[in-house]
UniProtKB/TrEMBL annotation:
This protein's name: Binding-protein-dependent transport system inner membrane component, ABC transporter, permease protein
Major location category of this protein: membrane
Record keyword Electron transport present: no
Native source organism of the sequence: Thermobacillus xylanilyticus
Transmembrane segments: 23-53, 87-108, 120-141, 161-179, 226-242, 274-296
PROSITE patterns per record: ABC_TM1
SUPFAM superfamilies per UniProt: MetI-like
Bilayer topology annotation: Multi-pass membrane protein
Residues forming coiled coils: none
InterPro entries: ABC_transporter_permease, MetI-like, MetI-like_sf
Domain ABC transmembrane type-1: start-end pairs: 83-295
Tree of life domain: Bacteria
Family: Belongs to the binding-protein-dependent transport system permease family.
């Protein structure tokens, strides 16, 4: 009969295996981490660091001013308006995208013929180039020969100069953003719908629940983890909306459709006000993190409730 290894030898083998696995993981992850540090990590930290300096123009010498740029940010209406516009516009885009995506996911979940083809169609806007699709979008909105204005002319109406109206500019930014994001949201909702246990629907049907009852008492509670994830990620992306504004309105008219990321772009690459660009970036990062944490805590509040302590029963003799 063979003899089992002593406990010390077994522990040594486990440590050796862990060290070997750790070394392999380091070799695999180190190049990726280094790449991230060079391409994204260091530039991001350097951009935040610039927020504490007065630096206008590449030939200028940076001058440390502490929180001066941050004070100027909240005292200047251009920046506060852009920040507020980013928040409410991002919230509006997120709400409409998630609602439209949920409706599309319900349709995708039906037992239809060729449903894979329909799902692909819904997702096409998410993978198309924003530059290309916004240019096609602008063709429809052209003042002289745009499709929409040609239709209006055919009915004897005056053409609309979209670029001169902030309300229309916001409207088309929202429409394009929802069209762009609904496919991705729908697929995530669909994954959540298909993860709900069918037994729960059968139990609800036995209890007399109809279609709306199943949706309210089975589907929506089962989608809560997915809803938390998709809400946070969609809101973070929507608050940082930029390309749509750049290619559809370019911030006009008179800056009335500017959002904070567009303002950061203007400061950094047009005006070379690197200090304000860095300060605005740091403020936006803090606000996005705070909003995400607050929503996560609110959405998971019921899951983290502590149980009511049970008083011990006093025993008698």
């Amino acid at each position: 009969m063979g003899h089992a290894d002593p406990p010390a030898a077994t522990a040594a083998k486990r440590r050796t295996k862990r060290n070997r696995d750790g070394l392999i993981a380091f070799v695999i992850l180190a190049p990726m981490f280094l790449f991230w540090l060079i391409v994204s990590g260091f530039p991001t930290l350097f951009g935040f660091f610039l927020g504490f300096f007065d630096w206008v123009g590449l030939n200028d010498t940076p001058n440390f001013i502490g929180f001066g740029n941050f004070v100027h940010f909240f005292q200047n209406k251009v920046y506060t308006d852009a920040l507020w516009r980013s928040i409410w516009l991002g919230g509006l885009v997120t709400a409409l995208t998630l609602l439209a995506g949920f409706g599309a996911a319900l349709l995708m979940n039906l037992p239809l013929f060729g449903k894979g083809f329909y799902r692909s169609i819904w997702y096409i806007p998410a993978i198309t180039s924003t530059v290309a699709t916004t240019q096609v979008f602008n063709i429809f909105l052209d003042t002289n020969n745009g499709v929409i204005n040609n239709v209006l002319k055919s009915f004897g109406k005056e053409p609309i100069v979209w670029q001169y109206s902030a309300a229309w500019g916001i409207f088309w930014i929202v429409v394009y953003s929802v069209w762009k994001g609904v496919g991705g949201a729908a697929l995530i909702w669909l994954a959540g719908l298909q993860s709900v246990d069918p037994v729960l629907y059968e139990a609800a049907a036995i209890d007399g629940a109809g279609r709306w009852g199943k949706l309210r008492y089975v589907t929506l509670p089962g989608l809560k983890p997915i809803a938390t994830y998709i809400m946070i990620t969609s809101l973070i992306g929507a608050i940082q909306i930029y390309e749509q504004v750049l290619f559809i309105t370019n911030g006009g008219p008179y800056g009335q459709t500017e959002v904070l990321v567009f303002r950061i772009y203007r400061d950094g690459f047009w005006d070379f006000n690197l200090g304000m660009a860095g300060a605005s970036s740091l403020i936006m990062a803090v606000i996005v993190i705070v909003i995400a944490v607050l929503y996560y805590n609110w959405s998971t509040k019921s899951d983290r409730r502590t149980t009511i302590p049970v008083k011990p029963v006093k025993g008698g003799r």
